[in-house]
Request: fold
Amino acid sequence: MMERSPAPGGLTLVEALVNTLDLESGADALDTAEGRARLGVTADEADRARTLRESLRATLLAHASHPPHRDVTPLGELLAEAPLLVTVDAADGSAALAPADGRSLHARVAAAVAQALVAGTWTRLKACAATDCHWAYYDRSPAGRGRWCSMQVCGARAKMRRYRAKDV
Reply:
């Protein structure tokens, strides 16, 4: 569905995780070894990754002023389990948050969210308004009011539905 550029920095991980499920077809990349490998998730970790994915999706919908798609575990609760470390570069003194366990998906997502928050990019990562899509995308519009992952697909469908509803 995506025609947009990927999200910046660590948000590419968040975007990739949310987009492992195609709501229209029902295909879930976390069902396949290849799909899990792209995120560094084992088969045993897939259910936890799905829970995190749907919590992220609900948060990204909120970024776009849309209600959650279903009841989910609050993202803050899931990320509270993720240990982070402050790293300091000895050469220039710059500091960053890093996952304490670089393999943990929860910790990698928590670090990405924290870095995006500091960079001011976190709320620009949104979920498509189309109920049969909810694909994650990074909103690069000047005003930050993008609604759809694709204006040509989801946006056009929404406008056509609105047009047809007026004719009735």
